[in-house]
Task: structure prediction
Amino acid sequence: MSLSASPVPQTGVPGVRHSTFESLRLGRSSQSIASGLLCFWDSLNFKKDSEFMGITVLFLDEKVNSVTHGFIPTEHANHYMSSLKAGSIVKIDRLEVARCSSMYKITDHPFLIRFISPTIIDEVITGAPEINLQS
Result:
C-alpha cells in the first residue's frame, strides 16, 4: 500500500512541486506540501504544571480558507524551531498525516500534519505558489 500522493506541479512556476491539503493521505509519506506558515505557539499541558508538549503550527493552503494545523513533538522541537517563520511560504517534505482528534481540533480540516525525524521544512524563496496570507 502506497501512502504517498503524487506531487502536483505548480502551473507556470518551476521548481516547487507539491501536493495540496486535499490530496493529503493518512500515514507517513514522502509527499510534499507547500503552504503559508501563519503562526505557531508552544503547546503546554496545563494539567501537568504547564509541561511543554511541543509546537503547534497553523498552515494555509493555496485555496482560500483552507487551513490545517501541524504539530512538532517535544523531541523534535529544537531541531525545527529555527525553520519556523510566521508569514513565510514553506515546503514540507516527509511528513506524517494523522486524523485530528476532536479534543485537539483547532481547524475544520480532518487531518493534522505531524513532524517526524525525517521531516524537512524549508522556506520557499523563489517559485512559491501564490498563497494569500491575509485571507
Summary: The CA atoms of residues 37 and 59 lie 5 Å apart.
